[in-house]
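Crash report, auto-generated. Payload:
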Amino acid sequence: MLRQFRAAKIAGAHGRVRPGTSTFCAALAILLFANGLHAQPLQTPSEPTVTSPRLKSDAGVAYPEAALRARISQSVKVDLVLVLDTQGRVSDAQVVEARGHGFDQAALEAAKKLVFEPALRDGRAITARIRFRYTFSPPSAKLVGQVRTLTTDSPIAGALVSVRGPAFGDRSALTAADGRWSLPDLPAGAIHVRVTSSGRQPTEVDAVLDAGGETDIVLRLAANSTTAAHEQGETVITVKGDRLPREVSKRTLNRDEIRHSAGTQGDALLSIQNLPGIARPPPFSGQLVVRGSAPDDTIVLVDGTEVPLAYHFGGLSSVIPTELLEQIDFYPGNFSARYGRAMGGIVEARLRPPRVSGYHLVIENSVLGARGIVEGPLGKGFSFFAAGQRSWLDLLITPILKAEGETQTALPSWADYQLAVRKDFNLDSSLSVLFFGSDDSYDIIDPVSNAADPGSAGALGYHTAFWRAQANFESQLTSRTHFKLTAAYGQDRLALSLGNNLIDATLHPLTSRAELSHQVMAGLRANVGFDLSYQAYDFALQLPPATRPGVPSGGPGQPPIRSQGSKSLFQPGAYAELEIVPWTGTRIVPGLRADYDNAIGHWDVAPLLNVRQDLTGSYPKITLKGGAGLYYQPPSPFDTAPGLGQTGLTSNRSTHYDVGLEQEFSRHLELSTDVFYKRFDRLVMPVARNAGSGSAYGVEWLLRYKADPKFFGWVAYTLSRSERRDVPSEPSSRFQFDQTQVLTVVANYKLGRGWQLGGRFRLTSGDLYTPTSPGAYNASAGSQLGVAAFPAFGARLPAFNQLDLRIEKTRNFKVLRVTWFLDVQNVYAKNNPLGVSYNYNYNYTQSVYTRGLPILPIFGVRLEVP
Amino acid sequence: MKARWLLLVPLLGCQGPNFDPPSRIDSVRVLATRADRPYAAPGESVNIEMLAVDGRASPTEPMRVYFLPSPCFNPPGDAYYACFSGFSEQFRRDVDLGPVLHSGSEFELRMPNDVIEAHVSTGGQEAYGLAYAFSVACAGHVEYRPEQATAAPDAVPFGCFGNDGHRVGTEGFVFAYSTVYGFAQRRNENPTFDSVTYDGRVIDPEAGLDVQHCSKSSIDDCPTAKFEVNVPASSQEPDPSNRSAGGAVLKESLYVQYFSTGGKITNDTTIIYDARDGRLANTGDDFKSPLLPGEHQFWAVLHDNRGGVSWQNFALHVH
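Recovered output after restart:
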């Protein structure tokens, strides 16, 4: 496990400097220098009486700045020869032996301010020459810091901070509730710091204290086992507005918030939908609509490898179990140059390493399905996890329907699986191999043929699946350089069928991603990388034919036409990025990305810039952020497939702008505001090539109460508009996925004794749809045509609202932890309209709303062997 | 260890809507049009006959049927609605078009001599020409009412209006089009009926069909009997434009549509002959007698997929 160490040294001796100790040797040598007086030999009882000068006032001297800047922290003596006048003032001063680094000048200037009682001879003041020594002692240093958790960055109270130095032995302090501690008055020089906390791995670090300075250290502690972070509630969803690599504008949801939020069944990827900037997904789909972009504009990655979908059919479950996630990074826009070929948002799920502290088992079962995880060490630095999930609905309900004589069985089924083996070479390097995949099916089997059109009778089938075999190598090459390499191979399959009509596509993606990150100097880090995708694909289509000569369109019985083909896509990309911190509180990240697509034979070069500025240096923090960038998305394989797509295409393009403010009101309450604007052009349109354009703009708010021992919750609100124009000659109109307002309120309260109650309320604008009215009747074929309103999506369904509640009870036994939960979606059974169905086979004069699921209770049990 | 679980089966509230079936005739309807030559040679005349019925129980105005006087030839993209732009030159807005429309259920169009040469070929197809004839059934008078410029291109530019000026809805207005292809050599004959049977008995179109009414409280509980359409195999002609993967010429597909002013038909449309498989089995359609005795009408309209049409109509005597 890598440790993190950050030290910010506040240099400067001007803050609190103790006066340098000065001593002088009284009468080390008395040089009598009198105007016109000559030394006289000592005389007999008649000889003169000499009194040495006596120091009356000494303003002291500061340890010179130059010496502090040069990081000199030892005691330094400067000897001077002073000439005193008859008033006792210093009329001249000379340095006996120069010490440099400002010590000499400081001593001379301080000596001029010395005031003595003048030397006396027989009671009369005389001039005198004396030796005087200044001893400069370095000012003490102050060591302050904070102790936080490694993954969630939460403060740790009660941690013991022990500091050892050669000059002072051991000093220690305990962290306060906010994780902070301080040790003043430490001698400058090298120190060794060790931090321990119950349930966590200790951390040690060496540092150097500067004299007169304040050194600030932030130390992050990992949980006891390398994989126990999730046990401590440290699976993180990080929402990054204009996210800057390795320095984020964080909206963090910890595992408690994910697991106990109502309506998402403890699914981390589903929890993203509760955040601002994401529209309510289309009915029964797991599509992500991010800031007015089409679902296909957002890409999902698992450990750097793109996967075709994040959610199973119906959007009821994601393809990666929450228990295996270490972190989810969600970028709604203005994302880093390391991501390309997307115009919407980025969702990157990072899997955690397998746990090595013994073997562990989790089994969860609910009305939707069952899943299990097993993991543990394999010895010699190896560890593994194996997990899987399978839905129940089709297995349980189909036999019931058949037994009752139903001829139609229509229920979805889904499954996913993950297997990982990891080798930790040392704390800095690791290699992991991961195999994972997902499989969704939805089949309607109707043995009664549709005599009206046998071509569309018999079966409706929907099948999507993917798998990946992936290897990840990561290494901290030096203290300044980090390297990461990912390579993966897999398969994506999409098969849709309706009777004799079908779409069947199979892709074989081979991808690789690498990044080298180097700290060039203080305040400057450079990141360079490449991102390569090679996809061979083949497809088969069997669709109703286009018009044939002599055959009127419309009417049943038209045999489908089959076409098939294969092709490959080669899409290399490279990027470079700088993280510039010119001064504390300011961060500037310029980036540049280039992508190529062999299907269009064109390079796309995209610059971007993100900036953050802290308006306050410490709590309560206020941060201003902004960004602008160009983002390209190549045409899809179907857009360029031979015989199916078009030639002469270029990439779709989008320009992102984002300005935001993050503000803390208290330790738990924070508000985040983002104003965004996206402009789309060169959008690929059927027949019209890159004639499409559009825009999306809006405001997002997230008012969040971060988890305390009893409660967490947030209010997310998005006000936005998304428009498109298919061709320049047409007017702009609302985009299909436009949702003007999206309000989500989430709250969870721990009742005690293992009981928790949570709720989620959503109020959103209704979906857009295209009204249809009666058109002409095709009397030759006997079919009625409908007229779709123009422009499309010009009407909006009534607003959507839904309340979900969750209650759970956890009980710990000796070797087992059991959690019962009841997750009720749509508590008050609101019949939200999700679409419009017309009597299309007649005259389109009748219509009804199609409705979503009614009240849906999901009861389940979770067993954990910790 | 085995977890106990409790199954709560959610009822997926996705019931299909109960729309009126298209086989039920209770309004002004155009059921079909028949061209005596679905494929015509350049210069040939084609007679088009319209089957329009008024199924309204209490009509306030009689149904009138018209054809637009000028057929449309070879519109861009072969799209029927591409002909709409030419109507602005033929018709004035907001006036009764009755005097300028061709009244009646029959219409004759003549294929231009250059109908094939004038057609813009999309490549890779046998040369042909295309003609559209437009017809209207209206319980009132017809007016030309094009939509605004932003309207969908296929929005019907005509409306039917009553004497009081109100716009008649779909219960009293149908706008239809018929397609006639121009081929130099290719021909297409209209399919023919051998017979229509009910419960195995051949129906005499002149005499009609006698059935008993259903005495149940709901028609869905009524017993069924089958209508069957018998079509000679000779009606399924070869279709040169429909070829198998090996290049063999396949045939037309034939399907029948049923309409009735009373009772309930299970399937409104049934395929009788498949292009590859020929005559299909089990092509009968269940029929439920009306709940009340009375006189009704029944139609069986036979199509081939190349525009050929024929129909049979008989009275339904419900006792």
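Post-recovery validation: The longest helix of chain A spans residues 393-403.
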